[in-house]
Amino acid sequence: MHILVLDTIHGAKVIGDSYADAGNVVDVVDVYTGTTPETANNSKNRTYDLIVAPVHLDPDHPILSNRSAPVITHHEAVYRLLGEKLPAPMIEITGARGKTTTAYALAHILSGNGVLHTSSGTFIYPEKNLLWKRSITPASVLAAVKYANQHPGWLVAEISLGVTGAGDLAIITSAEDYSFAAGKKSALKEKIASAKHAKRILVAEGISCENGNVVHIEDIARCNGINCTLELDGNCFVLTNPLFSLPPYRHPLMLAAAAAMMLNVDPTPLNHFNALLGRMSVSREKELIIVDNANSGTNVATTLCAARYARHLAGKSELTLVIGQVKGDGAVCEGFSFDQIISAIENVRPTKVIWVGRIPDPASESYRSAQAIIDAHCTTLDNGRKAAVDKTDKGSIVLAVKTWR
Fold it and tell me: Which of 303, 306, 297 lies closest to 174 in space, CA to CA?
């Protein structure tokens, strides 16, 4: 076949190479930054048997117009390329919120050899050694599957904007939705649609999914303070962990425990699961409590939760908030807007504010609002943390910078 694969930024070359290795003729085009002008120009006059486009590409993009060839997503292409030799078990995790925490929690439960592939890195278990740091685009699953097969062992893979459906279980971690692909698609609908091949599906509360073998978390799990009770297929577990009292952890831990039960694995190791770096992890410096919640999922809600947690731990109302979005960083599809950052600041009501990363246009209303409340401006999270420690005498510090970690 002659195949056109679009979007080199998000894995088109990896997918294209895999198709080429299988004996196909492949053209790979960068549709966002124009680094493949000759191939892009030639593709306009070529006839293809198949076109592979990222799910976030504008469906009305010129390169897709007047084409008779079928168009599939990167997720679907990876599903087809993976074939039948897969890790056992293989779990795919997607969602607007809680993907990474769910993935780490599930890896904490599973025993033996395995590979954990997340936005913070890809790790070999049980050693927990870093293998590499790559994006969580669908194309990255190809290398993770290959490595997991070589050991062999299980695979837990975090994937953006959907799953391939190739594994034993697909998890959608959040009902949160937003528009993308030039505002023409619903992120949640696309994630649900991507799971069409999945053998079993586990979804967070509030997700309407009518796929065949779907389990809704609200039907099998309930939390009360630091305790969580799960009942499925005649089995019952009561888990106890202080993290169940924190919303950013409660839902991912519930999903990880439910996933384990669906895989006939004992979920009780979650009783000893600890907070992850950048996800409500706690440290102390200069007699200050520092709650680190700087990650790719940071938003207003998680910032408010982190502030409540920090004040509770410190026993004082004084709080320095380090907040913002590192320039060129943060989540690919949903950012941390200036209005959202200012809203978080107004709701937290910190003693001091350290703004990190890009700032509003000086002529904007957002800039005027920000100027009145900023005590310092830094370009990186590390510099923001240092500035906060220098400027804070008592109480706590919350790191709420949206950034990949």
Answer: 297
Task: Give dist(CA 378, CA 357) in Å, integer.
Answer: 6
Query: Whole domain around residue 372: which residue ranges?
Result: 281-402
Distance CA 269, CA 278 (A): 22
Average pLDDT of the chain to the nearest whole number: 93
Residue 291 has pLDDT above 80, yes or no: yes
Pairing of strands 2-6, 129-132: unpaired
Task: Tell me the pLDDT band of 7, cut-offs 50, 70 and 90.
Answer: very high
- Last residue within a domain, chosen from 272, 296, 329: 272
Question: What number of residues does the chain have?
Answer: 405
Q: What is the pLDDT of residue 394?
A: 95
Residue 136 and residue 117 in contact, taking contact as beta carbons nearer than 8 Å: yes
Does residue 396 sit within a domain? yes
168 φ/ψ angles, rounded to the nearest 5 degrees: -80, -25
Task: Answer yes or no: is pLDDT of 330 > 60.
Answer: no
Looking at 18-132, which runs of residues are DSSP E strands?
25-29, 50-53, 71-73, 90-94, 114-118, 121-125, 129-132
- 150 found inside a domain: yes
Residues 249 and 364 in one domain: no
Res 102: pLDDT: 97
Shared domain check, 89 and 174: yes
Q: What is d(CA 239, CA 254) in angstroms, rounded to the nearest whole number?
A: 9
Number of domains the chain contains:
3
Task: Give me the CATH number covering residue 317.
Answer: 3.90.190.20
Pairing of strands 185-186, 352-357: unpaired
Is residue 75 domain-resident?
A: no
Q: How confident is the model at residue 195 (pLDDT cuts 50, 70, 90)?
A: very high
Position 126 confidence tier, pLDDT thresholds 50, 70, 90: very high
> Can you list the positions of beta strands (E) in 105-220?
114-118, 121-125, 129-132, 154-158, 169-172, 179-180, 185-186, 201-203, 214-216
Neighbours of 39 (CB within 10 A): 15
The whole-model pTM stands at 0.87
Q: Does the pLDDT value for residue 331 go beyond 60?
A: no
Average pLDDT for residues 278-306, to the nearest whole number?
93
Residues 87 and 236 in one domain: yes
Run of H or E residues at 256: helix 247-262
- In angstroms, rounded to a whole number, what is the distance separating the alpha carbons of residues 334 and 299? 10
Q: What is the DSSP letter of 49?
A: S
